[in-house]
Q: What sequence folds into this?
């Protein structure tokens, strides 16, 4: 079932990062295995003797996906805005995954800098995919700023621990029913992806869980299946939970019922 | 003229950003973007953008990212 973000219809609800793969070949194979249509990329200082860093970029272009450049590592709104402008020129896309780091140890996003940068970038014509915490009020501010997608973390970046605060994530979905919500960061297992998709999130964004798997290609496929299963369950509507047991097999017509010896 | 290029102090005699990039060996068609003093400088302005003593110049290129 397709979905739409920033005015673009996508078939896959899995967005994939491009770091930490054993090789560019493994990255390419993982992309094909999971059917993702969106890849995140970054920008870093280039020394001329490094040769332009073009082999990676050429490989990414050959995969035929949309790119979602990030502002990873930026510590202020101004840094993120400038890097976003640089990314738009290099990658030729107004899409930007906005990250403003608030704490280097936990990599927790700075909500104030993120909202400030989001407002400026939206005014400048960017489609902002904002990485944020699971805080509802920050998410509301990002929605009000006009972000294309709001992307709460499930757990700290790269930990693979899965949703640490399900209540907060479910509250985001409940309170922002019309926003595009993507769980970004902290997912480690396909079951984590299935879980958040069951809660109604529009998509997930992964990197380490696939790239650092024993077999990234099979793991990419497994995550795609998890995403599909979770989304399918959400659309099918889960049964209501009950406290007490209730027999599945009808009791009417049960043989030996009230049988007297 | 002393400038900072990607965090390193360098002594250059380039008048413009374009000249600096050429002198330092950046390939003309490379997938790079530039900022001076944390302000983005579009590629179309490289040839006109004059450098000043103490400018902090960043040149970035695509890498992997999450």
A:
């Amino acid at each position: 079932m397709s979905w739409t973000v920033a005015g673009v219809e996508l078939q896959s609800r899995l967005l994939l990062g491009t770091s930490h793969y054993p090789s560019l070949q493994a990255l390419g194979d993982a992309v094909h295995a999971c059917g993702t249509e969106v890849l995140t990329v970054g920008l870093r200082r280039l020394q001329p003797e490094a040769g332009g860093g073009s082999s990676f970029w050429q490989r990414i272009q050959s995969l035929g996906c949309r790119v979602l450049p990030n502002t990873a590592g930026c510590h202020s709104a101004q840094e993120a805005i400038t890097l976003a402008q640089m990314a738009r020129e290099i990658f030729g896309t107004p899409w930007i995954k906005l990250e403003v780091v608030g704490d280097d140890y936990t990599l927790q996003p700075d909500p104030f800098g993120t909202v400030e940068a989001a407002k400026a970038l939206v005014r400048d014509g960017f489609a902002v995919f904002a990485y944020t915490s699971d805080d509802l009020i920050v998410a509301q501010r990002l929605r009000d700023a006009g972000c294309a997608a709001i992307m709460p973390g499930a757990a700290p970046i790269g930990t693979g621990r899965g949703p640490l605060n399900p209540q907060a994530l479910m509250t985001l979905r409940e309170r922002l029913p019309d926003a595009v919500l993507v769980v970004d960061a902290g997912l480690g297992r396909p079951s984590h992806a299935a879980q958040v998709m069951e809660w109604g999130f529009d998509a997930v964004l992964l990197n380490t869980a696939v790239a650092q798997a024993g077999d990234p290609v099979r793991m990419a496929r497994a995550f795609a299946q998890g995403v599909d299963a979770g989304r399918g369950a959400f659309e099918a509507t889960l049964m209501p939970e009950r406290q007490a047991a209730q027999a599945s097999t009808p009791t009417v017509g049960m043989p030996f019922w009230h049988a007297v010896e | 003229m002393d400038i900072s290029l990607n965090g390193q102090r360098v002594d250059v005699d380039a008048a413009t950003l374009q000249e600096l990039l050429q002198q330092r060996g950046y390939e003309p068609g490379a997938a790079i973007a530039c900022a001076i003093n944390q302000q983005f400088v579009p590629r179309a302005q490289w040839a006109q953008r004059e450098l000043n003593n103490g400018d902090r110049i960043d040149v970035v290129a695509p890498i992997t990212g999450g």
